[in-house]
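Suppose a colleague, Dr. K., hands you the sequence of a protein chain of 507 amino acids and asks what its three-dimensional shape might be. Before reaching for any lab equipment, you can write down a predicted structure in token form. Begin with the sequence itself:
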Amino acid sequence: MKKLRTDRQTLNDLGIVESTYGEKTLFSLFDMTESDGGKRCLEEWLGHPLSDWKALHERQEAIRYPDFPEIRICREELDFIEFYLSQGDRPTRVSYLESAFSYIFRHFRATPERYVIRRGTKLLENVLLELKTFADHVTELSPRLIRNIAATISEIYQATELGKMVDSCGQEDSFYRTDRLDYIFRYRRNHTIVALLSIVYQLDAIRTVHRTAVMKGWCFPSFTNDSKFMLCNFYHPQVKDAVANDWEMENGNICIFTGSNMAGKSTYMRQTALIVLMAQIGSFVPADSAQIGIVDSIFTRVGASDDLAAGQSTFMVEMSEEAAILRNATADSLIIFDEIGRGTSTFDGMSIARAVVEHISDPAKGLGCKTLFATHYHELTELEGSVDGVKNYNIAVKKRGEDITFLRRIVRGPADDSYGIEVAKLAGLPGSVTRRAHEVLRALEAAAPKNKVEQMDFDALQEYNSPAVPSEMMEKLEALDVETLTPIEALNFLYELKKTLKGSLNS
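The predicted structure, expressed as tokens, is then:
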């Protein structure tokens, strides 16, 4: 059975079983399991989705099918069974004489071990009976996975003494019968009992996913053979009052998202990956309709962090993670990159980002996969039309004066502004600072050439290699340490350069 490939970084970015961003995990949305084993099974599904179409289809059918019988045994009873099976004094044989001596010893000296054995064997008998009842009620109309589970139960009962034990359930307990059950459960058929319990846990996980989907009103996704995505009114399952969007893409598409911070670019990309992952565990998804092309792997790079223990900077960690993604991705992968190249100088970061986009778009390099790419390098939007598969998107923003409202809607085309100062105001930056920032911005825009363009033309970058500027300015620029500049220092430096340039022009 083929499993979808991913990595720890991706699972953390998406908040599958652990949350990096302080929000609820995806697992918490489904955690209505009735056993710890069912919980472990569900965690395994979420961490290792399926990429095998046949296995995925079978699990989908089972999750969608609501009518198979319940296994009536509670969490506390299953926990006790696991505790009972974990006891270290497993019997390796049993006889009437040994049972009699054991009975006499325990009669005169009560021990907790005897209570554990008696209750554990009794509860396991109930589990065996419940599984037989389940198997007997499965019909040819039941989903294939459910029929396979029922067939497995029946084969086990026919091939072992467990079938006769089920038929004898309800008989009066005796010291010898209890010891014999204990011998069979914990020694002779221990692995078989563990396998039967795993069936109970699997059925628990199936019911949990089904109940969650019904309760939340999610839709049942279908899978396509042409690798196309078509999502109608889909939304983030963990965001309260999330805005629904439509989405369509196919292999080879590289979607570049530009726009303001806080507009929702990262959230949108993460929800797309979550929808795919949920679909490939066999689950319903939060959308009105969903057609999804099966992917063989999901890789994300969202957020930034350093590794002090390894002596790696934020930029080095970022590059290492991106390198790992590019090495492991295939043409059938889904990749999410958020603001790559931001940890270095502007031109270096922009160059890396462009090179990554070109590498992914090239099927000859083994990629050509579906990619969501958020960036503040607006120059990258020029790649639409020049690089195959690249499309521009942005998150709609409504501006009134110096105030903005995030509409959370995805629209085609590049963003017209980054709204950095407006976002700073929303974040609580003092009004005196934002007003001064607007003043500085207006001054910079007024000082800019009248024929300036909003975006840099990559084909014209060579013009920057030999700038026709005074030698005094060149000396200042060469002596400047860009990496250590604060925003205020950068603005002051620009004013000094402006004065120097005016002086040279007037002389």
